[in-house]
Design goal:
With 217 residues, the chain is an alpha+beta fold. It is built from 3 helices and 10 strands; from the N terminus they run ββαβαββαβββββ.
Amino acid sequence: MEEYCQNPLCENEATKEVPVSVDKPGDQKRSLCAVCEEVYTWGVQHGQVSKPGLQIEPPPKETGPEPLYRVVYAIDVNAASVPAAAVCTHRIMTDPVSLAPVLQVLDHRGRVTSVDLAVGPATAAIRHEAHAAQEKARQFVEAGGTQCPQCHSSDLDCGAVELDEFCAYQETCCRSCQLRFFAVYRLAGYGLHVGDSFEVHTIPEGFGQIPDRHQKH
């Protein structure tokens, strides 16, 4: 039995475990205080089953110096398959220039708090990280992709180039600091054969951001 009442609006100590219906009648138990147990008894569910969908349980109570929280990040993405949707979401989550999300944070008592990272002190930290990441990318491009973005060493082990719809990726490993990364090359235009030479047509630098095909439009 939990130490405290699992009613999200209550902070009393738990005194009794009662059966509750989630997927089927009485399939789970909740720890309640005396007051909440009495209210629950009067309004017992009588086998009511919740609607189908994702059920997120609160985290266990942490005995260490810091409490344990369960953080939920939800986003809708267009993708060709379930694994592709997971990969796309991971890219968005780890992209420092992505918009700061709204997260749902659960404590061990089941209380849910919405945290908007686009509002408040966290915004400044996120913007600082985004600026630092952009500065690293600028230095990497200025060096022609020949220096490690972490230690700036030129001792790189470059792999094969893989093509995507809008980009080419080259897996690279730095022999100095062992950082594994990949260089990103954007599609910028096309070239035409004109006699013995080429006529190159590219978009201007201020053309604007090319939409990422993995992101939802």
